[in-house]
């Protein structure tokens, strides 16, 4: 599944495939505190302009690969 994202979705971003689209379902975006790919500060401002109901959760002490780096749920913040 990961490679399908890399091969199809990432190249679609510069082409503007998703420009003008909105997430209309409640969405939770999980990110690691030490993520080098998706910085915790990135979705806080820009992401909310593209979703009707977006919640951003940052996992303390984790990087980009959350299931491997933080397999147990952390307390809600």
How would you describe this protein?
The protein is α+β, with helices and mostly antiparallel strands and 77 residues long. The protein is 30% helix and 16% strand. The protein is built from three helices and two strands; from the N terminus they run H-E-H-E-H. Strands 1-2 form a two-stranded parallel ribbon. Helix 2 links the parallel strand 1 (27-32) and strand 2 (54-59). The protein is globular and about 35 Å long. The mean pLDDT is 80.
State the separation between the terminal residues, measured CA to CA. Answer: 29 Å
User: What is the number of helical segments per DSSP (H or I, 4+ residues)?
Assistant: 3
Read across the widest sheet, the strand sequence of neighbours is 1-2
Low-confidence stretches: none
Q: Care to count the β-strands?
A: 2
**Strand-pairing-aware structural class:** alpha+beta
Mean pLDDT level: 80
Q: What order do the SSEs take from the amino end to the carboxyl end, as H and E?
A: HEHEH
């Amino acid at each position: 599944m990961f490679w399908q994202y890399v091969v199809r979705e990432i190249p679609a971003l510069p082409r503007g495939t998703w420009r003008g689209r909105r997430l209309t379902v409640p969405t939770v975006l999980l990110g690691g505190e030490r993520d080098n790919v998706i910085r915790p500060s990135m979705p806080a401002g820009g992401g909310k302009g593209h979703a009707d109901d977006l919640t951003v959760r940052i996992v303390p002490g984790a990087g980009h690969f959350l299931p491997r780096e933080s397999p147990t749920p952390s307390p809600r913040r």
